[in-house]
Amino acid sequence: MPWLARALVSGLMALIGCMTICAQTSLHDSRPRTASISGRVTIGGKPAVNATVNIYEHDEKVTDIRTYSSGGQEVIDQHYYRTTTDADGRYQIGGLPPGDYRISALSLAFVSESKSDERDGFRPLRLDEGEVREMVDFALVRGGVITGRVTDEDGAPEFIATSN
Questions:
Q1: What is the number of domains present in the chain?
Q2: Residue 122 pLDDT > 80, yes or no?
Q3: What is the domain extent for residue 26?
Q4: What are phi and psi of 3, to 5 degrees?
Q5: In a domain, 102, yes or no
Q6: CA dist., res. 39 & res. 53, Å (int)
Q7: Does 40 share its domain with 71?
Q8: Tens-place pLDDT, residues 59-102
Q9: Beta-carbon neighbour count of residue 1 at 10 Å?
Q10: Does position 43 have pLDDT exceeding 70, yes or no?
């Protein structure tokens, strides 16, 4: 039986080592991170305080997502960034590599006013190395809400099973 425990521990250590090597390899991105985006988010012309601004690099090859914090910003993978606006509705996201991005802003009960070039609420944006893109502004409008009750044919509450 002790040989089984040793084999199990050895196998687990090899698996952890492989996972560490794979994780380090996938996080390596040697592109210079010198571009930035900044702007202002408003609601009815007034600052949208603590609105969320999301930006992600539009790269079809990205299939996995990891979350971590960096410099006060929540970062999901090396290709996704999130920040919030200050008291004046202003935001800035720096340290971006060159590439094609999608950016959006939202706040509780508010969504970005739709523009003709936006798709799924995200505005396309291309950044070159070292580019400082300013005045990427968003005007938020009240979002829609659907409410209701699900009942059976007798008017009794209907149980709806969900799965994860």
A1: 2
A2: yes
A3: 1-30
A4: -65, -35
A5: yes
A6: 10
A7: yes
A8: 655 555 555 555 565 655 557 889 999 999 999 999 998 989 99
A9: 5
A10: yes
